[in-house]
């Protein structure tokens, strides 16, 4: 047994990267304190511009969360009661939650077995005359098949919202995700690849009308103070979070590179023994999560746990089988590929500062488990 110098290995350790960024973040936060401007100020505007530039979109609009970014996007596209939005059942709840929240109907389409992203062929089968939009998720940081999805959207005159909450910086055919559809939505939840010190989100678009609409809707439908042209919500990205995010955005590519290095190391050491993530091109996966797939998933999770290693299931219950969506009338067996993935997927610890030493310990623990169970 090797000597272990830590208590447990968590899924994410957000404190380790502070070594590099604590000072500049505290400096920028002090600027905000001294400015007296805490909501809709200079830092928020800087962040909107810089994130839009980074993504390759014309406009950025800060929001209070990724969930709100999704909801505001649907509202800006005038999607509501009577409308269907096609999405994946294999995602975080918020994707479909936002669709239901604006009064539209989430319509699920099954996923591809190797990428875990929505399958364009099943999108096409789910289209009806009520379909208004496709909400694509780039799950775990891996780009969905946007070429096919945009082709389908063009053919059927559907809008495309990219839920890029897990995929900031991911590239697809030379573009960054979030700049390909009509609207891109990002989350800066602390554990996301670009994380704030609280809740925050952002919308990107190239379309000036959508930009104006979303900017109004996030501020009670007002672009001029106390004049309201629509009924919106209170969903702004505050100056403190903008201060944190401006510093972290500067380091984002370095941190994404380190994630990819960790992911490659996992894959090199594990791909012979279990199913590792599919990556066709270097840039198309930024590894918000590193998930492996195996039949003995629960046994491996419990061995990891006993060895002091956290792991997590993203996601144990596909959305069409969630009690909250009973009213949609879906049943077990409707989306077999998503259901199978939910039974077999396991996320391993991954974060920019994950040390080789810790990673080797994780890899060895998995190898030992598979040697005894394979
Ligand atoms: C995190 C996440 C969201 C929601 O973002 P919040 O900022 O937590 O509201 C939406 N969709 C996906 C795929 C996510 O991973």
Query: Order of strands side by side in the largest beta sheet?
Result: 1-9-8-5-4-2-3
Strand content is 5-15%
| Low-pLDDT residue intervals, each spanning 5 or more residues | none
Structural class: alpha/beta
The major sheet is characterized as: 7 strands, mixed
> According to CATH, what is the topology of the largest domain?
Aspartate Aminotransferase, domain 2
**Distance N to C terminus:** 22 Å
Arithmetic mean of pLDDT: 96
Q: What CATH first level of the largest domain would be assigned?
A: Alpha Beta
* Contiguous helical run count: 11
Chain oligomer state: single chain
Q: How do the SSEs run, as a string of H and E? A: HHEHEHEHEHEEEEEHHEHHEH
* Rg value: 21 Å
What would the principal axes of the Cα set say about the shape?
A: globular
Q: How many structural domains?
A: 2
What percent of the residues sit in helical stretches (DSSP H or I)? 25-40%
By CATH, the architecture of the largest domain is named: 3-Layer(aba) Sandwich
């Amino acid at each position: 047994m090797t000597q272990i110098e830590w208590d447990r290995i968590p899924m994410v350790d957000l404190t380790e990267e502070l070594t590099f960024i604590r000072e500049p973040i505290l400096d920028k936060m002090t600027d905000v304190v001294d400015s007296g401007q805490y909501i809709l100020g200079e830092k928020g505007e800087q962040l909107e511009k810089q994130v839009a530039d980074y993504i390759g979109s014309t406009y950025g609009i800060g929001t209070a969360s990724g969930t709100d970014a999704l909801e505001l996007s649907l509202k800006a596209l005038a999607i509501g009661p009577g409308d269907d939005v096609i999405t994946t059942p294999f995602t975080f709840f918020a994707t479909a939650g936002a669709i239901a929240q604006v009064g539209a109907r989430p319509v699920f389409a099954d996923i591809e077995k190797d990428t875990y992203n929505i399958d364009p062929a099943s999108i096409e089968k789910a289209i009806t005359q009520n379909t208004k939009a496709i909400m694509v998720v780039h799950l775990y940081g891996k780009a969905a098949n946007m070429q096919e999805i945009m082709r389908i959207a063009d053919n059927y005159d559907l809008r495309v919202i990219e839920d890029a909450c897990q995929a900031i910086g991911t590239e697809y055919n030379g573009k960054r995700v979030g700049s390909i559809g009509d609207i891109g939505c990002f989350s800066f939840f602390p554990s996301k690849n670009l994380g704030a010190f609280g809740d925050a989100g952002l919308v990107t678009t190239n379309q000036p009308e959508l930009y104006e609409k979303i900017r109004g809707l996030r501020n009670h439908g007002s672009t001029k103070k106390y004049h309201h042209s629509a009924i919106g919500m209170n969903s702004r990205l505050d100056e403190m979070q903008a201060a944190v995010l401006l510093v972290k955005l500067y380091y984002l590519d370095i941190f994404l590179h380190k994630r990819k290095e960790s992911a490659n190391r996992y894959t090199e050491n594990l791909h012979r023994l279990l199913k590792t993530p599919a990556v066709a091109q270097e840039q198309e996966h930024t590894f918000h999560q590193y998930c492996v797939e195996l039949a003995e998933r629960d046994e491996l999770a419990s061995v990891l746990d006993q060895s002091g290693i956290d792991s997590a299931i993203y996601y144990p219950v596909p959305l069409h089988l969630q009690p909250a969506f009973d009213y949609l009338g879906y049943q077990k067996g409707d989306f077999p590929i998503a259901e199978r993935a939910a039974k077999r997927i396991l996320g391993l610890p991954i974060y920019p500062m994950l040390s080789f030493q810790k990673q080797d310990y994780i890899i060895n623990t998995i190898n030992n488990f598979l040697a005894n169970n394979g």
